[in-house]
Amino acid sequence: MTSLLDRAISVLRLNDTGIFTKPGPYQYPHQWNWDSALIALGLSHFDLPRAHLEIRSLLSGQWQDGMIPSVVYHSAPSDYFPDPRFWQIENSPSAPPVPTTGITQPPLLATVVRTIDARDPDPDFLGEVYPSLLRWHRWLHTARDADGSALACIIHPWESGTDDSPRWLHLFEAIHPEALPEFQRGDTRYVAATERPNRSEYERFIYLIDTFRKLNYSPPDLLAHSPFLAQDVLFNAILYRADEDLRALAQRLGQATDEIDGWLDRVQQNFNTRFWDEDAGLYYDYDMRSGKRIHVNTASSFLPLFAGLPSGEQARRLVEGHLQNPVEYAPRGEVGHWVTTTAKIEPTWEPRRYWRGPVWVIMNWFIMEGLARYGYEELAESIRKDTLSLIETNGFREYYDARDGSGCGSVDFSWSAALALEMSKASL
Ligand code: DGY
Questions:
Q1: What is the pTM of this model?
Q2: pLDDT tens sequence across 324-335
């Protein structure tokens, strides 16, 4: 029988276009930003030059102002919607020469570059990509800083990476699309509609893009007028961790770190004040438009562990009060798997729908790494083993039913393969 690792390599090879790797063969036929970072991490275990190419290809879509977009379309035609023309990025003076979306995604790349470099040092490659990473982080801490806190704002649920999280329903309550451009969804062609976002959420996704097109993607206008503006726990935890990794890369290259130190100091000062809810013992996202925290209990609340941001006591409350609680996240009896994306007690919990509740390999990986950082090695190991056995039994799927582990979403999903390699090979 072919081993899990051989099968993981085959999935990455299957989705390899030679320039970039598709996240999924049918559902996601272009290059996605944080998918690509994880794919490079997976590739680095068996083909380092190809991992470097994956990163170079993503960086070829960087905007003049520093943004690295959520999707780079390169030149491949496809049946994916929104297609490149829909974004109308050419109306922005910052648009790159290749077709891309006009929004970004969680900034995982510097962390991946540092991890790969620590295993297989390549100063030339590092020197080549470092300036692009620095420009992206600078853009996040300036063009997306709405209140001088150095925390980055997101303007669309797709920027959060957790696109269909029930957290966003609270912001959507205040958004009423008056007129929508004509569009035809493509995301339910290969995946059952019951596993994809509902129509009313999807219409808001499109309405937001239409709003951004009308603002020509001008960063100050987006901050001033986007109806959706949030400071997201997951996004900012990943950014903080990536800033630390960027600083380590700067030190490796003998470059000044003052600017990065400044971002780290300010985010450290503001993160807990902004997001930590002392009563609940959870981190909650912040809606900039209503000026309120979004009180929804999701696995994003554990992401600060990955960044080392909680105190020991905060970590204890997160892990012992919530993650290990069978009513919220932990598996109960024979039913249930680590780690559901939304707490099972949330009324919006849905075990098979996109980010409403299923288990995602990426979340398990973040949480496992965060737990190890805080000394919860046994728990981290239990999540690692459960994740690998979930993949062994149900294949490299995009996500898994939170009750019985059956596969949902895209088949042959690249980051599930990449993280299977990472979780099997890297020691905690
Ligand atoms: C989709 O099409 O659902 C993607 O997640 C958006 O980036």
A1: 0.97
A2: 999 999 988 656
